[in-house]
Amino acid sequence: MSGGPLDGVRVLDFTRHLAGAGSTRILATLGAEILRIEWPHPPALDFLRLSGPHADGRPGMNRGGFFAQINVGKRSVAIDMATDAGKGIARELIPHCDVIAESFSPGVMKRWGLDYEAARALRADVIYLSASGFGQTGPYAGYRSVGPTAQAYSGLTATSGLPEREPAGWGFSYMDHMGAVMNAAAILMGLERRRATGEGEFFDAGQSQHGCALLGPMLLDVSLNGSRVHPKGNRDLYGNFCPNNAYRCRGEDSWLAISVREPEEWAALCAVIGADDLAGRAELATLAGRLAHEDANRRAHRGVDAGAGRARGDGRAAGGGRARGRRADGRGQGAARPAGWPSAGSTRRSATPCWASACTRTRPCGWRASRWA
Q1: Which residues face 77 on adjacent strands?
Q2: Distance separating alpha carbons of residues 243 and 49, to the nearest angstrom
Q3: Which residues contact 293 (CB under 8 A, 6 or more apart)?
Q4: What is the separation of C-alpha 288 from the centre of its chain, rounded to a whole number of angstroms?
Q5: What's the CA gap between 204 and 308, in Å, rounded?
Q6: What pLDDT does residue 46 have?
Q7: CA dist., res. 12 & res. 37, Å (int)
Q8: CA 7 – CA 315 distance, rounded (Å)
Q9: Mean pLDDT of 227-243
């Protein structure tokens, strides 16, 4: 595990599940050495080790696909943290590590004598990240959380779904995935600051705070204009495009995503789908006019959805762009890579989207009990 941008950086990894372990997976991809502290006593065992999907449908400690996906390139060290001897081993490791990452409920690491202040006494320039649902302080700090909980609390859930319906949420545990990215970014910032100043850093990484940061202009719209947040489906949030939606086409589960802004784009769309009646309406020629009649346009488009599949044979969309039909399996795009999977042979896994040319491709970690207290 060498040759990447983080070559020589060692991370003591106490994280679990996705938001924490996903962040150190990114660091491993960039060449850092990750020492993942585990112990197989329920409930301390990371439940993702035993959760599906399983290789060949057979459960096992090293056969969980989800666990393998987010622990690529890490080393697993078994230490029983319930014992004084185990805590002592962890303290022995700290001086040799540049980064400590943990995702327990607030207070756990302090009770173990391994919080930031204790770690800084052992290594003054350590970068320390504590990931939790609501942060280490404040009225909700003691509450446990998972990604969808933090997503709802932040307000993100209220933005997703179809108009006039209950919020739908953002796919599978969106804030776990985004939390992992933000946690990794924080650690990278800490390493850069240490390079410039020689000082360590502590990061209090609350998932709900991450969600608030993603609201961006919507949060400003609410606080400054008193606007009401509600799901808008695929419509453009701020009226920059209309129509802006996905429409059913001929064939099995075939869809066409259309975004229109300029008058010439609208005219080209109407020509392609044979909507002469819409093209002849002067009030729809402008973006403002189409936004004013968005509901009526949506109903009209339902009648020509199948016709939208009649795009020109060269694959060009109405506005001149080129659309390609492609199965979303990542083949040929660098989004999926072959990997050796302990106890399960060779398989394909999704890769980190941005790949550094110097990085070594590493494999998911297996259960390697190096020391047991």
Answers
A1: 37
A2: 45
A3: 283, 284
A4: 35
A5: 49
A6: 78
A7: 7
A8: 44
A9: 86
Q: How many distinct helices (H) and strands (E) make up the chain?
A: 13, 10
| Residue in the block written with tokens 């040759």 | 3
H-helix or E-strand spanning residue 102: strand 99-102
Q: Look at the alpha carbons of 329, 335, 338, 339 in this order and tell me if their dihedral is positive or negative.
A: negative
Q: Whose CA is closest to 298, among 260, 347, 271?
A: 260
Q: Which amino acid is at 146?
A: V
First-residue to last-residue Cα distance in the chain: 27
- Residues 6 or more apart whose CB falls under 8 angstroms from that of 48 comprise 16, 17, 18, 21, 64, 66, 67, 70
CA atoms within 13 A on the CB side of 202: 12
How confident is the model over 86-97, as pLDDT tens digits?
999 999 999 999
Contact of 46 with 67, CB cutoff 8 Å: yes
Residue 34, judged by CB atoms within 10 A of its CB (0-12, 13-18, 19+), counts as: buried
Dmax over Cα atoms in the chain, in whole Å? 80
Over the stretch 98-145, which tens digit does the pLDDT of each residue have?
A: 999 999 989 999 999 999 999 999 999 999 999 998 888 888 888 888
Cα four-point dihedral sign 287, 293, 294, 296 = negative
What residue has token string 């770690």?
119
Asked if residue 291 lies in contact with residue 242, where contact means CB atoms within 8 angstroms, the answer is: yes
**Full-model pTM:** 0.77
For the record, the structure tokens of 372 come out as 């047991």
pLDDT tens, position by position, 317-363: 443 333 333 444 444 444 445 555 556 566 666 666 665 565 554 44
